Amino acid sequence: MTRCMRALGFADLPGWDADDHAAAWAAFSVTCPHCPDAISDPRAWFEAHFTPDEIAPGAAHYTGYYEPELLGAMTPSPRYSHPLYAPPPRLAAQLPWHDRARIMADNLLAGHELVWLQSAIEAFLVQVQGSVRVRLAEGGILRLGFAAGNGQPYRSIGAELVNRGAISAAEISSNAICAWCAANPAQVQDLLNHNPSFVFFHPLDLPEDTGPLGAMGAPVTAQRSLAVDPAYVPLGIPVWVDCPGIAPRLMVAQDTGSAIKGAGRGDIFCGTGDVARAQANGLNTTGRMIVLRPRKALP
């Protein structure tokens, strides 16, 4: 855990008394299987077993992510012509693998298609989010989760559009990026190639009411799971999140992301579908990140 910390007490956490500690406990227990099956007072339990330390005081940066819900098909057609892919064989032994431009130009993943979506930017944004629910034209829902990456660095296409002067920094969002792609279809692949990172998927067999799998191999929880940089915040640890756009609350570091790097960097899982997408798109703010450090080994 980073040394850039400031010790606090629970009385120093604005909103701590008003939070739903039972909801935070439910999320925490998903990735802490050795904790008690049930506790009568979650708030008291957290206070007894943890001590709060603020990481990167005054400089925590929060964004949001979500699980897209899209239309798609198991076979290609003029409507559904942009695939998501399974990893190629022996990928782990070949990392870093080819970059996005080479993959697409040479069709290196032919035969590894899992499902077909309606647009290239749609498939790209699913790679950024790392999971998806696809409502199939054939009927039913296919859920896919992150399987692997190509080992190439992540570069923001939003930042690239700002650098090109195509969209202003104040207006950049996934909606603005999609609108630009719709207006400039011949330039879309060139824009996407700016990001050499490429993500592969695998099918998930999960109940409909659970979130996608996070980096700890367990489902993440809307409004309670946080993606972090594990070089600074250990996975599985509770984190008090205080930033504009959501009420202060206790979350759990249960996920990671290729763009989530540095002390105080957090990405809030907002849920599934269009409402979650709207909230995630609106989150890009500075706030406070307070990790709850275990006082000793947990029971």
What's this model, at a glance?
With 299 residues, the protein is of the alpha+beta class. 22% of the residues lie in helices and 30% in strands.
CATH superfamily of the largest domain: RlpA-like domain
Portion in strands: 25-35%
Shape designation: globular
Gyration radius over CA = 20 Å
Number of strands: 13
Head-to-tail CA distance between termini: 21 Å
Output the strand order for the largest sheet.
Answer: 2-12-9-11-10-13
Give unreliable regions as ranges.
Answer: none
Key features of this structure:
Ribosomal Protein L25, Chain P, six-stranded mixed β-barrel, Barwin-like endoglucanases, 299 residues, four-stranded mixed β-sheet, alpha+beta
Q: Can you put this structure into words, describing what you see?
A:
The chain is an alpha+beta fold and 299 residues long. It folds into two domains: 5-66 and 217-294, RlpA-like domain (Barwin-like endoglucanases), CATH 2.40.40; 68-203, Barwin-like endoglucanases (Ribosomal Protein L25, Chain P), CATH 2.40.240. It has helices at residues 21-30, 42-49, 100-105, 120-129, 157-164, 174-183, 188-192, 273-281; strands at 5-7, 50-67, 69-72, 82-85, 113-117, 131-136, 141-149, 199-203, 225-228, 238-242, 249-255, 265-272, 284-294. The two termini are 21 Å apart.
